[in-house]
Structures are given as structure tokens and as C-alpha cells.
């Protein structure tokens, strides 16, 4: 019998990867952890939610042998600096987000989002084998530019940013994310930390919670007594499904081409007006619009249907 020659490359084993996801119990973090390869990749999932309060899907995920869950508040610099030193990639997704939280506690948004970013980058400096820190930012950073100057569609990542009125709570979120982006670039400049910024645009899918327009519309329709109010019916948005967003996130975290870059993650495949979104959701729920069971009362507001709307996520 002929002896089969095994190519030498097959004999060499790839080193085990160690990937840290902050904010891992959240919508994007958990989906990302699910999607990363199972083989030879240890996932260190960090969130401040105690194990007893985690949802069943996430609990199932952290039972896998390649997954470790650590309940840590990333505001705690000492706890962060004590994390393992052999992590090679960090996806920093932890943040306080959502219109409700942003309106109620802008101080918390600024404090948590700024301090967690700082602590993560201080920690990143201590890692010997670091390949990338991916910082999650948002389309909301364009809100001020969009309102005051207008922006081209599709929008390039180099559009200058302009902050909306800093005295309004809503600005705190964009401000905290612009600050985080600045920290990432400063740590790259001063300490050579390899970074990528991703700006997510309207991601949707399972486990997204009820802070966003799609699940909120389902609830509004379910609870409606025949009509619902749609504040900005003509505003258009393009939604990106979580699986696509996560795939793009991993590519951004892995590709040499995205190092030192800002990358939009969203979809330009289908732009939909909020009015049409509501009608589509009503249809899925088998609720009739107009003369039948569910009536949409359109608020009278002048809107430009071509204007892309930034989300608060
Ligand atoms: N979902 C979107 O459409 C969207 C859009 C734009 C930007 N983003 C950004 O993407 C990232 C992930 O978003 P998401 O939708 O998964 O949010 P999410 O709220 O579902 O998840 C964020 C997680 O961070 C955790 N966290 C917050 N503060 C923490 C702290 N101090 N220590 C440890 N954990 C902490 C929370 O417990 C939560 O589980 C965020 O940074 C967000 O700003 C998301």
C-alpha cells in the first residue's frame, strides 16, 4: 500500500484563540458569541448581569465548554485589569443604550460608556498577544450633522461629525460614543493598540429587547384599541438583521484591512418609511389597518421621506 504523505501544514496546530466580548449578555454580544467558531476559540463573555438574572438562551450558551462567563462591572478598573492576559481580540460592546435610559439618566450614559471604554483600553495595553480591539459605535453620531447640515446617502465614514445641543439628554449617547472612538484612536496612536470602530445602524433580531422601533411597534399594535400614533411616519430607515451584523462584526475584527478604520455596519438593501413598517408589522400580526381593526393616526409633522433616521441604539 502506498504511503500517504500528509502535508506538513496539516501537522501544525493553530494556536488557541482567546476572544473577549464585553456586554456579552446583550443583544449583539450574545449573537456574536454564538457565531464565533467553536473550535480552538475560547470565548470570555463579560457582563454585569448576575448569573441568576440571565435569560435561558444565554444560560445555555455559557454552559458550552468553550465559553466562560464573568459577571464584572467594567467600571471597576481593578477587576478589568485582573482579566486574563492572553486575550487576543476584544469586542467592546458594553454600553448604556436606548432612548429611555438616555433620556432618564444622561449622566450614567456618559459615565458608564466613557469609563468602560477607558478601562478596556488600559487593559488592552497590558496584553502581549493582542490582535484587535473592536469598539462599537453608532449611527447616532451623525444625528447632529444630519439635522443641521444634511448628509449624503449612502453616507461615507469620513463625514464630519457635529454634536446636537449638548444641553439635551439625548446628545449624551452620541457624545459618549464619539469619546470612545477618540479613546480608541488615541490608544492606537500612543501605544500601537490595533483597533477597529464599527458604527452600527438599526440592527434587529431575536433578543433585541423592547427599546427599539420594531418590537415597540409590535407591542403598540397588540395593546392598541384600534389606532396607534406614529410620530415620524415619513422618516425612513434601513434595518440590518443581526446575523448579517454579527458576520460583518467578525470580519471587521479579523480583517487586516479594517485595522485603524471606522466601518458602518447596516443595510442599504431596503429603506422603509416608518409608516410602511407599521403597516407591515400590522399585517404580520394579522391586524387590519384603516377601516378595519387597527387604525394608524399619522401625526402631522413635515418630514423628508428621503432623510435617513439615526436610531438611538
Ligand atoms: N442594537 C443596535 O441596533 C445598535 C445600534 C448602534 C450601536 N449599538 C452599539 O452596540 C453595542 C451593543 O449593543 P446591544 O444592542 O447589544 O446593547 P445591549 O444593551 O443589548 O447590550 C449591552 C450590554 O452591556 C452591558 N453593560 C452595560 N454596562 C456595563 C458595565 N458597566 N459592565 C459590564 N457590562 C455592562 C449590559 O448589561 C448589556 O448586557 C453597544 O455599545 C451599542 O451602543 C447597537
Explained architecture:
The protein is of the alpha/beta class and 313 residues long. The chain has a single domain (14-203, 239-268), classed as 3-Layer(aba) Sandwich (Rossmann fold), CATH 3.40.50.720. The chain has helices at 8-11, 27-35, 56-61, 77-81, 99-104, 106-124, 143-148, 171-191, 213-223, 242-254, 274-284, and strands at 17-22, 41-47, 67-71, 89-92, 132-138, 195-200, 203-204, 227-230, 236-238, 240-241, 261-265, 271-273, 295-298. The chain has a seven-stranded parallel sheet with strand order 3-2-1-4-5-6-11, sandwiched between helices. Strands 7-10 form a two-stranded parallel sheet. Strands 8-13 form a two-stranded parallel ribbon. Helix 2 (27-35) links the parallel strand 1 (17-22) and strand 2 (41-47). The longest helix is centred in the middle third of the chain and has 21 residues, at 171-191. The radius of gyration is 22 Å and the shape is globular. Nicotinamide-adenine-dinucleotide binds at residues 23, 25-29, 47-49, 73-75, 93-97, 112, 116, 136, 138, 200, 202-203, 209, 311, 313. Nicotinamide-adenine-dinucleotide (NAD) binds next to helix 2, helix 6 and strand 5.
Q: How many domain modules? A: 1
- Going across the major beta sheet, what is the strand order? 3-2-1-4-5-6-11
Q: Determine the fraction of residues in helical runs and give it as a percent range.
A: 25-40%
Mean pLDDT: 88
How big a fraction of the residues is strand? Answer: 15-25%
Low-confidence stretches: 1-10, 298-312
Count of DSSP strands? 13
Secondary-structure content class: alpha/beta
Gap between N and C termini: 63 Å
**Could you state the CATH homologous superfamily?**
NAD(P)-binding Rossmann-like Domain
What is the level 1 CATH name? Answer: Alpha Beta
Please, how many helices?
Answer: 11
- Largest sheet entry: 7 strands, parallel
Bound small molecules, by name, code or SMILES, are: nicotinamide-adenine-dinucleotide
Cα-atom Rg, whole angstroms?
Answer: 22 Å
In the CATH hierarchy, the architecture is 3-Layer(aba) Sandwich
CATH fold topology: Rossmann fold
The topology string of helices and strands comes to HEHEHEHEHHEHHEEHEEEHEEHE
Amino acid at each position: 500500500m502506498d504511503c500517504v504523505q500528509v502535508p506538513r501544514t496539516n501537522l501544525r496546530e493553530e494556536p488557541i484563540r482567546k476572544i473577549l466580548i464585553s456586554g456579552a449578555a446583550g443583544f449583539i454580544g450574545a449573537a456574536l458569541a454564538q457565531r464565533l467558531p467553536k473550535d480552538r476559540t475560547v470565548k470570555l463573555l463579560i457582563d454585569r448581569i448576575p448569573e441568576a438574572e440571565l435569560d435561558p438562551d444565554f444560560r445555555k450558551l455559557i454552559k458550552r465548554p468553550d465559553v466562560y462567563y464573568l459577571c464584572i462591572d467594567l467600571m471597576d478598573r481593578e477587576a478589568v485589569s485582573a482579566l486574563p492576559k492572553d486575550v487576543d481580540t476584544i469586542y467592546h460592546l458594553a454600553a448604556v443604550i436606548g432612548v429611555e435610559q438616555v433620556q432618564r439618566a444622561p449622566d450614567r450614559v456618559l459615565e458608564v460608556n466613557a469609563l468602560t471604554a477607558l478601562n478596556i483600553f488600559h487593559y488592552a495595553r497590558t496584553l502581549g498577544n493582542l490582535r484587535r480591539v473592536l469598539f462599537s459605535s453608532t449611527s447616532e453620531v451623525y444625528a447632529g450633522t444630519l439635522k443641521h447640515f444634511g448628509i449624503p446617502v449612502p453616507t461615507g465614514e469620513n463625514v464630519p461629525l457635529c454634536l446636537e445641543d449638548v444641553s439635551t439628554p439625548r446628545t449624551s449617547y452620541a457624545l459618549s460614543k464619539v469619546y470612545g472612538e477618540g479613546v480608541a484612536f488615541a490608544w492606537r496612536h500612543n501605544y500601537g493598540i490595533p483597533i477597529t470602530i464599527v458604527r452600527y445602524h438599526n440592527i434587529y433580531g431575536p433578543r433585541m429587547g423592547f427599546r427599539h422601533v420594531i418590537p415597540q411597534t409590535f407591542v403598540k399594535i397588540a395593546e392598541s384599541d384600534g389606532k396607534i400614533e406614529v410620530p415620524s411616519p415619513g422618516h425612513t430607515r434601513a434595518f440590518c438583521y443581526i446575523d448579517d451584523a454579527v458576520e460583518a462584526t467578525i470580519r471587521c475584527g479579523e480583517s487586516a484591512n479594517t485595522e485603524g478604520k471606522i466601518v458602518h455596519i447596516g443595510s442599504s438593501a431596503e429603506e422603509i418609511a416608518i409608516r410602511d413598517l407599521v403597516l407591515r408589522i400590522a399585517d404580520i400580526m394579522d391586524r387590519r389597518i384603516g377601516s378595519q381593526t387597527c387604525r394608524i393616526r399619522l401625526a402631522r409633522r413635515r418630514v423628508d421621506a428621503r432623510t435617513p433616521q439615526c436610531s438611538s441604539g
